[in-house]
């Protein structure tokens, strides 16, 4: 390769005049960043290299993606893009003066890059020099900047715009998050109906579909309804939005997010999250007193009460001198502002060999076959994060010889201590209303969110999330007829209730409570905290006991009856994740954490919880679905729906069209999935893209044709009990055949969760449908590979022994999942290590009794 040629303003006149000609062939590929373009000038798309790295950072002048020296050639070969802006920040130690201090030096003379890096430009010990130059591949011609007179105007404008561009993560920053939310125009004049509605502190469910997650309280009439369905499988059926369309009541608050500082409020009319300056008053209308949470009975604010200080000290092992750990597997992660939940989960995930092999082991292949924008590819970002944590490249101890060399050369080469997962968090949380914010989140919910994304983005022939998957056998019994029903469902976490009644130190707890109340009355500091000591065996016993089934409908009696449900393991996973259910709500609506100590065992045997199936003498409940009751007003609404004008969410259509799908196919996808959003419509496209009329214009059936073509295209329950098309599409996207999806939905009254359980409990029906494949639509072809891997026996599992050994746990400090801090402890090379964001140290006193989520691996038989 030809040696790089350098051009600068001080070069010969002839060389300066040649700059314009040198760039002429590449001018069509040079773009000026526009509003909305993401400019990645602080971090490589494939690694954690930055302008402060030894090789600097190369920013593509066409895509504005950043690449470290190790990865720039890959992008050039893949795209043919030749012109890059190379950014380099040098860290130079100040020259000591006669007095021993650093000589004052002119500030910011050579600091012009608007970068967000770990270094502090105002550090008194070092100075920073920025350098920018254009590099032309493949010959590595370099043009030092600025060269305003010599460069073409377009190039100068593009370079200036790129250098001054703001961070693509600006919305992720804590300082800007609250600024993005604007006060709703409805907040001041909101009318609230005096209908006597009072909202309890727990036990909520959607008033239309009985869902118990993603619930929203309408601030006008107090209706509790579910939100929309998200791409990760969470969410609801969109009843909150339907309610707004019917009533026009604009504001709703998400239940479970109410804290003393506020709550998540959404404006259906303004179509965005908003601030409600009068939220306390609006919530009080329905019996929710959020202001009471700010001040306790003794007049002290929650932050002033310190009985939980010991929890923070114990979990973080404060007061003990901990030895820092360096090298592969001992890399810390920067806290981006309440992102410790992500850091703790990812440290645990990448301590598992299956995830290491899937992403880091396949790193060259993943990077080589990544899309043109690797920042938006899940597997690329997982591989990047895994390599950052496991390579040791960003966890190097300071070496004495290097320190001496740096002093002699007056140049400071900062040690890479940890990584900043900005790009990973921005991508993995995209589209999720909670994880995309900078508020604290529940680590358990994020773990499930991550597993969902792993499932949806397979890498190689073996999915690493298989190690967590297990089958749960649920035995439901009608208390009156004594008949039973056995079903199976997939799960990834064993949730253990806290058996408070089994505390072994009840006398101490009673004495502590008396002292605490006396201290409050006398306005004295509270006594030293006494935690309830709960035997693990009691929690395990509570898990295995029968639970009452709410609103149980007995198919034997053809009526509602009392029912109980018992759960057992139909299979044991390779890695068992155990959650201690510490979080709840008090009767006063204050989020509470059960501050308990559970003697979690190092070795765990749950073999006795193995499912046994239908036992001799047991009689099964008839496989009859509850009757479908359609109110008269609902029938009228359905009839009117068919004669209304066509309403298609054009924003969702354009999102799909930008992915490269035909416009008419995108319109059909959005229409047939009931305007539930681009994610649901995308599943419809994948399932129907092989059909011959896939890209033909949408034809709406006339009202008289509805009965023959299927009445459920609008997402309502048809009079002929045809399941909603969006639910059918969701099940098909999971790899099941259309006729099986319809049969399951019909058998379960169009309940999506129960329909999936029904499919898993009737594996023989999948086999019976094989001969009918030739007669079916070809819409399932896109998912044939999933069916081939899954087989007729349902989801892939790794069954084996029920004996496990503890290798990690995540602990939470604070009063609720919406606040506080997470720390991870992992057992590596025979000793415990604490991962506290960037701080990675050998653990001296791992607080195994105070954990929130525990990780066990199977002991080989």
Automatic annotation (TrEMBL):
The active site is at residues 340, 821. Residues 331-859 form the USP domain. Its EC number is 3.4.19.12. GO terms for biological process: autophagy; protein deubiquitination; proteolysis. It comes from the Eukaryota. The keyword Zinc-finger applies. Zn(2+) binds at residues 206, 209, 226, 239. Gene3D superfamilies: Cysteine proteinases, DNA helicase RuvA subunit, C-terminal domain, Zinc/RING finger domain, C3HC4 (zinc finger). Keywords: Autophagy, Cytoplasm, Hydrolase, Isopeptide bond, Metal-binding, Phosphoprotein, Protease, Repeat, Thiol protease, Ubl conjugation, Ubl conjugation pathway, Zinc, Zinc-finger. Signal peptide: none annotated. Residues 182-290 form the UBP-type domain. GO terms for cellular component: cytoplasm. It is found in: Cytoplasm. Pfam families: UBA, UCH, zf-UBP, zf-UBP_var. Residues 647-688, 722-762 form the UBA domain. It catalyses: Thiol-dependent hydrolysis of ester, thioester, amide, peptide and isopeptide bonds formed by the C-terminal Gly of ubiquitin (a 76-residue protein attached to proteins as an intracellular targeting signal). GO terms for molecular function: cysteine-type deubiquitinase activity; zinc ion binding. Belongs to the peptidase C19 family. PANTHER family: UBIQUITIN CARBOXYL-TERMINAL HYDROLASE, UBIQUITIN CARBOXYL-TERMINAL HYDROLASE 13. Interacts with UFD1. Interacts (via UBA domains) with SIAH2 (when ubiquitinated). Interacts with BAG6; the interaction is direct and may mediate UBL4A deubiquitination. Interacts (via UBA 2 domain) with AMFR; the interaction is direct. Interacts with UBL4A; may be indirect via BAG6. Interacts with NEDD4. This is Ubiquitin carboxyl-terminal hydrolase. It comes from Accipiter nisus (Eurasian sparrowhawk). The lineage of its organism: Eukaryota, Metazoa, Chordata, Craniata, Vertebrata.
């Amino acid at each position: 390769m030809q040696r790089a040629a350098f051009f600068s303003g001080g070069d010969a006149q002839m060389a300066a005049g040649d700059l314009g000609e040198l760039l002429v062939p590449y001018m069509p590929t040079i773009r000026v960043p526009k509003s909305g373009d993401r400019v990645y000038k602080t971090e490589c798309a494939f690694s954690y290299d930055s302008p402060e790295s030894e090789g600097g950072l190369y920013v593509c002048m066409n895509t504005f993606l950043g690449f470290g020296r190790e990865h720039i050639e890959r992008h050039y070969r893949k795209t043919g893009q030749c012109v890059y802006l190379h950014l380099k920040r040098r860290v130079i130690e100040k020259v000591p003066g006669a007095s021993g201090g650093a000589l004052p030096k002119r500030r910011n003379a050579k600091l012009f890059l608007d970068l967000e890096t770990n270094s502090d430009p105002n550090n008194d010990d070092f100075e920073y020099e920025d350098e920018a130059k254009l590099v032309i591949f493949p010959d590595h011609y370099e043009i030092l900047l600025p060269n305003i007179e010599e460069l073409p105007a377009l190039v100068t404008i593009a370079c200036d715009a790129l250098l001054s561009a703001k961070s693509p993560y600006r919305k992720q920053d804590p300082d800007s998050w609250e600024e993005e939310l604007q006060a709703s125009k409805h907040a001041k004049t909101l009318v609230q109906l005096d209908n006597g509605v009072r909202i309890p502190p727990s036990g909520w469910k959607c008033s239309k579909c009985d869902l118990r997650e993603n619930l929203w309280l309408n601030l006008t009439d107090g209706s509790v309804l579910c939100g929309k369905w998200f791409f990760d499988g969470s969410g609801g059926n969109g009843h909150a939005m339907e309610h707004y369309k019917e009533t026009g009541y604009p504001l709703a608050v998400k239940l479970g997010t109410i804290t003393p500082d506020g709550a998540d409020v959404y404006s259906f009319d303004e179509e965005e999250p908003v601030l409600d300056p009068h939220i306390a008053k609006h919530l009080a209308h329905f019996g929710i007193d959020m202001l009471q949470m700010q001040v306790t009975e003794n007049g002290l604010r929650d932050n002033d009460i310190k009985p939980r200080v010991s929890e923070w000290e114990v979990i973080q092992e404060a007061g003990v001198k901990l030895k820092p750990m360096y090298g592969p597997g001992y890399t810390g992660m920067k806290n981006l502002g309440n992102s410790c939940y992500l850091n703790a989960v990812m440290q645990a995930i990448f301590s598992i060999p299956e995830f290491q092999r899937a992403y880091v082991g396949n790193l060259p292949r993943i990077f080589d076959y990544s899309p043109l924008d690797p920042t938006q590819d899940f597997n690329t970002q997982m591989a990047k994060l895994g390599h950052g944590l496991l390579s040791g490249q960003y966890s190097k101890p300071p070496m004495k010889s290097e320190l001496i060399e740096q002093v002699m050369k007056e140049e400071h080469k900062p040690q890479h201590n940890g990584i900043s997962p900005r790009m990973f968090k921005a991508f993995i949380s995209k589209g999720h209303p909670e994880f995309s914010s900078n508020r604290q989140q529940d680590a358990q919910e994020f773990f499930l969110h991550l597993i969902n994304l792993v499932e949806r983005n397979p890498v190689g022939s073996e999915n690493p999330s298989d190690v967590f998957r297990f089958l749960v056998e649920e035995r439901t019994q009608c208390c009156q007829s004594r008949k039973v029903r056995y079903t199976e469902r997939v799960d990834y976490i064993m949730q253990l209730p806290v058996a408070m009644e089994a505390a072994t130190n009840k006398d101490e707890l009673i004495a502590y409570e008396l002292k605490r109340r006396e201290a409050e009355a006398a306005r004295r500091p509270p006594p030293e905290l006494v935690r309830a000591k709960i035997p693990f065996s009691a929690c395990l016993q509570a898990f295995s006991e029968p639970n009452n089934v709410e609103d149980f409908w007995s198919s034997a009696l053809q009526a509602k009856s009392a029912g109980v449900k018992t759960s057992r393991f139909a299979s044991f996973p390779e890695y068992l994740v155990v959650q201690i259910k510490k979080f709840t709500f008090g009767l006063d609506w204050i989020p509470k954490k059960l501050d308990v100590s559970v003697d979690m065992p190092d070795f765990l045997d749950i073999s006795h919880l193995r499912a046994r199936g239908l036992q001799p003498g047991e009689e099964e409940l008839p496989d009859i679905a509850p009757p479908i009751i359609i109110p008269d007003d609902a029938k009228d609404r359905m009839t009117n729906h068919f004669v209304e004008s066509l309403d298609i969410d054009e924003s969702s259509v354009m999102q799909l069209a930008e992915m490269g799908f035909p416009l008419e196919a995108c319109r059909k996808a959005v229409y047939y999935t009931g305007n539930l959003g681009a994610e649901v419509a995308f599943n419809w496209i994948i399932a129907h893209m092989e059909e011959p009329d896939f890209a033909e214009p949408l034809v709406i059936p006339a009202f008289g044709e509805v009965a023959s073509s299927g009445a459920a295209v609008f997402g309502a329950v048809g009079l002929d009990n045809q399941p909603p098309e969006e639910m059918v599409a969701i099940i098909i996207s999971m790899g099941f055949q259309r006729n099986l999806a319809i049969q399951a939905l019909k058998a379960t009254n169009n309940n999506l969760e129960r329909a999936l359980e029904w499919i898993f409990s009737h594996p023989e029906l999948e086999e019976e449908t094989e001969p009918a494949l030739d007669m079916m639509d070809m819409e399932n072809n896109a998912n044939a590979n999933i069916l081939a891997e899954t087989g007729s026996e349902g989801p892939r599992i790794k069954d084996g022994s029920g004996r496990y050994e503890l290798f990690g746990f995540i602990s939470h400090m604070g009063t609720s999942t919406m606040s506080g801090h997470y720390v991870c402890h992992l057992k590596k090379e025979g000793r415990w290590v604490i991962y506290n964001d960037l701080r990675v140290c050998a653990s001296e006193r791992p607080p195994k009794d105070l954990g929130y989520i525990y990780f066990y691996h199977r002991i080989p038989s």
